[in-house]
Design brief:
This protein is an alpha+beta fold. 35% of the residues lie in helices and 21% in strands. Strand 2 (55-62) and strand 3 form a beta hairpin. The protein binds coenzyme A.
Length: 155
C-alpha cells in the first residue's frame, strides 16, 4: 500500500532516511555531510515538512509495516540552475529486505502523480554518481540524464 505519511510514521521513516544519508556519506564523505544524530535530525526535518503544503511524504506499507518512503516538494524557479518551477523528488528509500519487488517504482510513480496534481510540469531529481541501482530505477521510469555535478576540494 502506498499512502501519505502522517506524524505517526516518523519513527519508522527516520531510520530509513538515516540510512539514505549514511549511504551517500559513504559514497563521498566530503561531498555528502553526515550530521550528528542523523536519525533525530531527519525525523525533525521530515516532521517539519509534513506541515509544508508544497511537500509530499509518502510511505510504502506491507502488512502494516513501513518498508519504504519517498519525499518530494514543489520547487520555485531557480535562475542559477536554469530550472523552472518543478517537482523535486528528494528521497526514495526501500528497506533492504523488501527490494526488487517494484516498491520503489510504485513510490516514485505515486510521487510523480502527487506533484503533478500540485501543478508540477516535470520532476527533477539528483542521484549520486556511483548509485547504479537508483539510476537504473529512474531510467526504467523514463527519467533522462540532464546534469552532471562536479566537486573539487580546495587546499
Ligand atoms: C534504489 C532503490 C530505491 C530501489 O528500490 P526497489 O524497491 O528495490 O526498486 P524496484 O523493485 O521498484 O525496481 C524497479 C527497477 O529499478 C531497477 N533496479 C532497482 N534496483 C536495482 C539494482 N540493485 N540493480 C539494477 N537495477 C535495479 C530495475 O530496473 C528494476 O526493475 P526490475 O526489478 O524489473 O529489473 C533501493 O535499492 C534503495 O532504497 N536504495 C538505497 C537508497 C537509494 O539509493 N535511493 C535513491 C536515491 S536517489
Amino acid at each position: 500500500v502506498i499512502r501519505p505519511a502522517s506524524s505517526d510514521d516518523l519513527d519508522a521513516i527516520a531510520p530509513l532516511a538515516a540510512r539514505l544519508v549514511r549511504e551517500h556519506h559513504h559514497y563521498d564523505p566530503q561531498r555528502f555531510f553526515l550530521p550528528e544524530r542523523v536519525e533525530e535530525g531527519y525525523r525533525w526535518w521530515l516532521g517539519r515538512e509534513l506541515a509544508n503544503p508544497q511537500a509530499t511524504l509518502l510511505v510504502a506499507e506491507e502488512d502494516g509495516v513501513v518498508v519504504g518512503y519517498t519525499y518530494g516538494r514543489l520547487e520555485e524557479r531557480d535562475w542559477n540552475a536554469l530550472l523552472d518551477e518543478c517537482g523535486a523528488l528528494h528521497d526514495v528509500y526501500v528497506d533492504e529486505k523488501a527490494r526488487r519487488r517494484g516498491i520503489a517504482r510504485a513510490l516514485v510513480m505515486a510521487m510523480c502523480d502527487a506533484l503533478k496534481k500540485r501543478g508540477a510540469p516535470r520532476i527533477v531529481l539528483h542521484t549520486a554518481s556511483p548509485n547504479a541501482a537508483a539510476q537504473a530505477l529512474f531510467s526504467s521510469l523514463g527519467f533522462r540524464s540532464t546534469m552532471i555535478e562536479l566537486t573539487r576540494e580546495l587546499p
